[in-house]
């Protein structure tokens, strides 16, 4: 089995009916990039930059240190695209207590000052991160991804901060390229107003981990309710399906970078929704590719309404898998 998965590595990931499916890697630190390459990822779909800021005591990385880290990833990926997510701090990923920018003492951290909200409240930190990311874009293909977007206003403020960062780099004579700007779709509100967000963003990436948490009101870190954390909940599936469909209808790239993208139980369902870009832990790429190679995307798409209408979508999914395996 191990050897068979190894052989899969350099095989293009294409469905039976010829649809190219992009399999990307989620990484947390520059040291993870070689594993992404080794797994056959065609790029980094999610670089969780907050890991550069965690377990640091009171000292957070400045622009220069961040630039070196982002550049190391871009160079390790050797021309493949790298999607860098701006700091997604707060809730399950707190900054150290000693830091002046600590996110401690929030009554409800998952609903508090986290991710892009935190960045917009810390304009100097945000500016330094944007400049570091822009500078890394001079060394390869970089895309910029914003976590926890909930409001079109946030897009405007990010665009503003980005143009300030560009002007500062221009003044210093620092080179950078144009970077595409994307939004994480992980708050139900964002999925529900997707067309307005698509006016401001070049691409979207669905964060199913948080989308499940916020749709079902289940704290993803609270063990007392972990049995209710249900990726198969029809409300979650509807939000994912409509996000994919609307992004495609608007001609904008859409991927899934939450755990569902790397869980083989959901591969056929996501293909049925029209997804062509999956980002996951590098260790999952081979098994997802295996499922992609056996899938008929068009056939799956015709069956989607049936699954979405089902009260137990996982049963409907299991049924169609049983029939397609028998074919
Ligand atoms: C998500 O929420 O699905 C996601 C990819 O981001 P994180 O798990 O880092 O919050
Ligand atoms: Mg998230």
TrEMBL record:
Keywords: Coiled coil, Cytoplasm, Kinase, Magnesium, Metal-binding, Phosphotransferase system, Sugar transport, Transferase, Transport. One of its GO terms (cellular component) is cytoplasm. The keyword Metal-binding applies. The active site is at residue 257. Its EC number is 2.7.3.9. Mg(2+) binds at residues 186, 210. Belongs to the PEP-utilizing enzyme family. General (non sugar-specific) component of the phosphoenolpyruvate-dependent sugar phosphotransferase system (sugar PTS). This major carbohydrate active-transport system catalyzes the phosphorylation of incoming sugar substrates concomitantly with their translocation across the cell membrane. Enzyme I transfers the phosphoryl group from phosphoenolpyruvate (PEP) to the phosphoryl carrier protein (HPr). This is Phosphoenolpyruvate-protein phosphotransferase. The lineage of its organism: Bacteria, Pseudomonadati, Pseudomonadota, Betaproteobacteria, Burkholderiales. The chain holds residues 263 to 589 of 589 of the full protein.
């Amino acid at each position: 089995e191990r050897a068979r998965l190894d052989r899969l590595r350099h095989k293009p990931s294409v469905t039976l009916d010829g649809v190219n499916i992009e399999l990307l890697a989620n990484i947390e630190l520059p040291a993870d990039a070689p594993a992404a390459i080794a797994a056959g990822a065609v790029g980094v779909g999610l670089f969780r930059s907050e890991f550069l800021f965690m377990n640091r005591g009171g000292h957070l990385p400045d622009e220069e240190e961040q630039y070196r880290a982002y550049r190391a990833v871009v160079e390790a990926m050797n021309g493949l695209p790298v999607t860098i997510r701006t700091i997604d701090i707060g809730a399950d990923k707190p900054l150290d207590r000693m830091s002046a920018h600590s996110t401690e003492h929030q009554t409800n951290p998952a609903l508090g000052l986290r991710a892009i909200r935190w960045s917009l409240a810390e304009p100097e930190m945000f500016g330094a991160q944007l400049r570091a990311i822009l500078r890394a874009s001079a060394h390869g293909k970089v895309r910029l991804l914003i976590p926890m977007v909930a409001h079109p206003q946030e897009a405007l403020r990010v665009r503003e901060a980005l143009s300030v960062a560009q002007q500062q780099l221009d003044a210093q004579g620092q080179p950078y390229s144009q970077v595409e700007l994307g939004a994480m779709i992980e708050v139900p509100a964002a999925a529900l107003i997707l067309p307005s967000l698509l006016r401001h963003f070049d691409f979207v990436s669905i964060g199913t981990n948080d989308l499940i948490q916020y749709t079902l009101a289940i704290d993803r870190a609270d063990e007392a309710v972990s049995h209710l954390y249900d990726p198969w909940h029809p409300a979650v599936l509807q939000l994912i399906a409509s996000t994919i469909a609307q992004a495609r209808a608007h001609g904008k790239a859409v991927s899934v970078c939450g755990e569902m993208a790397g869980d083989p139980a959901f591969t056929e369902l996501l293909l049925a929704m029209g997804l062509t870009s999956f980002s996951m832990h590098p260790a999952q790429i081979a098994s997802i590719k295996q499922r992609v190679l056996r899938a008929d995307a068009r056939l799956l798409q015709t069956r989607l309404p049936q699954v979405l209408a089902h009260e137990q979508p996982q049963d409907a999914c299991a049924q169609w898998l049983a029939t397609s395996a028998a074919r």
